[in-house]
Amino acid sequence: MAERAAREVTVTDHRSGTWSERRATANYGGAGSQRGHGESQAALDAVADCVFILDTEHRLVRANRAACRRLDAAIGALLGQPCYRHAHGLDEPSEGCPHKLLLQDGRAHDAVMDEPRLGGRIHVRCTPLNDEEGRLLGAVHVMRPVGDGHRPSAPALDGAPAEMPAERLTAPDLRRVLDAVGDQIVVLDRQLRLLWLNDAAAAEAGRPAAELRGHRCHEVLFGAEAPCPDCAVTAAFAEGRTVESERRSADGRYLLHRAYPVVDSGGAAATGDAAATGSAAATGSAVTAVVAVTQDVTARRLTEVALAESATGLRTALQATVRALGAVIELRDPDTARHQRTVARLAQALAAEMGLDDDLVDGLWFAGHLHDIGKLCIPIEILGRPGGLSGTELTLVRLHPEVAERILADIPFERPVAGAVGQHHERLDGSGYPRGLRGDQIALEARILAVADVVAAMTAHRPHRPALAIDSVVGELVRGTGTQFDPDVVAALRRLRERDELPTGE
Questions:
Q1: For residue 103, what are the β-bridge partners?
Q2: Structure confidence at residue 419 as a pLDDT band (50, 70, 90)
Q3: Average pLDDT of every residue of the chain
Q4: CB of 325 within 8 A of CB of 373?
């Protein structure tokens, strides 16, 4: 049986406001205090939310790895600093500071604040941290973005674990911190037995933590005889790296599971993120335990579904509006309406052949159907005239891209449709109009539209000339490659033609 180890630790006494000494016992799942401290720290670092521990003077005494990454600082630069100065850039706590309120009444407080350094608009849960006698030592702050599950990646730290010196906070202290975190946190051995679990995990299981320790997680947490087929914990043990998975619970919740290996290299416990230092297998380290964090992401997933449905509804409404505009144009000028539909099909086919993303391909549907909407400002007798145009008339015709861009500028397309439409007559060598843009000054969508526009125009019958054969048109574009037309777009055109997959006019 492991020997219980007691040692001196430094804590904050809220009543005196000074550092004082007390004894604490660290016994962790039958292991010694050093291992308990290391695995507790690994559990704290496994929490994806930012976790800060502040004393009664608002000074930072501990932070997890996510918090250090969010502030882009090593823990050594943060320890002992007042949070209002280092995290918020203030000279004193704000009036609504949840930590200030907690120090006044000893109760937990929530707050929502705008803090760019911590990810924009964030929710803060501030929970009291007391010693065994109930004295207030400080508070645990758990922060996460409001309405956004995305946590941007950050540069790796300098290798120092996100912790204060070991004598400052013991494993029991850390366990109280982990109990204040809303996510479910468990520590498991290779037999998937529960070494430790926080209050949230015990509440999910519906049994006291003491009854669950030593039992296999799949038996007591999920009522299963064997581990889940896609169990993140077994994968973390096998691969020695952080593993993430998501599943639906029986009651319909979306649960995100992250399993973080705790590695032992040469007999010493390591508590960092294996993903930051390489897998245990790669470093020759043995995985002694896995910290598993389960987060309820139902609200996030439902928000994503609602946003997707909203985006689909907006896209459908925009498509209906575009078709209505096309009908108006067709009443006035059927040739232009047919031309726009052909350009849209060609542009989408070219973009797909180039391997571009679906959003860009979808954007070209709108751009193609609207690229000549600016011709509504041109008298119909000029558009349909079989002969040449005067200088004034040519100038008027060349205004249509700018007019179209102004018409479309305030419509909330997902892609820069207005800009692409405004540039579709620009050419790589600067010989185009209306602005004489060159090369990469021209948006990719506009370069695709330019090729589609020429192909559609030259292969269509017009009052002043017959339609040209498609091979002749492709040849013209090949001759203009690099000077007028984008080489990648023309190459895609040639491939489609060789496979006889070019969309044709109506």
A1: none
A2: very high
A3: 78
A4: yes
